Amino acid sequence: MRADCLSKFLLHDRSARVLCTQVDQTWQRAQQNQPQSPCVRQLLGELVAAATLLSANLKHDGSLLLQLQGNGVVKLIVVECRHDLSLRATIRLNREPKPDEMGLQALLNADGQGRFSVILAPPKDKPQRQPYQGIVPLRADSVAGVLQDYMAQSEQLETRIWLAADASELGGLMLQRMPAQDNMPSPESDTWAQAQALCETVTSEDLLSLDQDTLLHRLFWEMPVISLQTLPIQWRCDCSRERVAGMLRSLGQTEVDDIVREQGCIEVTCEFCGSPYLFDRVDAAALFETLAPQESPRLH
């Protein structure tokens, strides 16, 4: 069984870096509470693989969010990957896809208004920092193509990405040209071209079935690569009753009271992991309780 991990490599002349990801058990957990349509699931899987690849560039303890938004079958796909490569993901559909609706453009961009967003969120202990957001239109026909468009526009680094996903496994490969450094020779263009040609031979089957060592050896057996590090990938949802309570408080007491009056209680289900949170009349009232100065806090 393959391990869920991200591995980083450099070409021998340091002209480019190679990132390779494989996500099997974590992927199976991520899709448990999501729509099971194969074409929609493939988009989610490729975005999960992409998020792990791009998270390798995080330089702080925050998180990376990738979002695909559209007005077609798919309303929103979100993947959050944190600096420690723990991730969670979700899909919102406007409706179930028809048999002839397949692929990114048909599912997300039928009206031409779809977009792809990259959000770099600051660490939770540094809320004063503003998140960064980059947005590009959905012109490409694949998640990999959309990501390459984004990297060309925002990062200005030559980047090639290959992604694959099925119901059980994910795989991804990213080749990124390194910028010239001060007092260092420029990266060799012929090495970059050769590396691209080698990576172009990778197939979806290779990304889904081969472990990283085998894949890299098959691609670069004539071009030595320098192994940098391998990091584990895991599923983690940080939803909690306290977070849900905070969300309900943000609605205001009037709206919360109206919901309780109409429904008898409030039930919130985490869209990432499916965990249910129930607030009855007493719980809802306690959300807005304030203690007088002379009172002591009650234990619950």
Query: How many E strands?
Result: 13
Structural domain count: 2
Give, in order, the helices and strands: EEHHEEEHEEHEEHHHEEHHEEH
Sheet with the most strands: spatial strand order: 7-6-3-4-5-11
Shape: elongated
Mean pLDDT across all residues, rounded? Answer: 88
| Count of separate DSSP helical elements | 10
Termini distance?
Answer: 45 Å
Class derived from helix and strand content: alpha+beta
Task: Estimate the strand proportion.
Answer: 25-35%
CATH topology of the largest domain: Hsp33 domain
CATH H-level superfamily title of the largest domain: Hsp33 domain
**Residues in helix, %:** 25-40%
Question: How do the helices and strands line up, and which of them pair or pack?
Answer:
Elements (H helix, E strand, L loop, with lengths): L4 E7 L4 E8 L1 H6 L7 H17 L8 E7 L4 E9 L3 E8 L10 H5 L6 E7 L10 E6 L5 H13 L3 E7 L4 E8 L11 H11 L4 H6 L2 H9 L4 E8 L1 E2 L5 H11 L1 H11 L2 E4 L6 E4 L1 H6 L14
Parallel strand pairs: 5-11
Antiparallel strand pairs: 1-2, 1-10, 2-9, 3-4, 3-6, 4-5, 6-7, 8-9, 12-13
What is this entry, summarized?
The strands form 3 sheets. The chain has a 6-stranded mixed β-sheet with strand order 7-6-3-4-5-11. It has a 5-stranded antiparallel β-sheet with strand order 8-9-2-1-10, with helices on both faces.
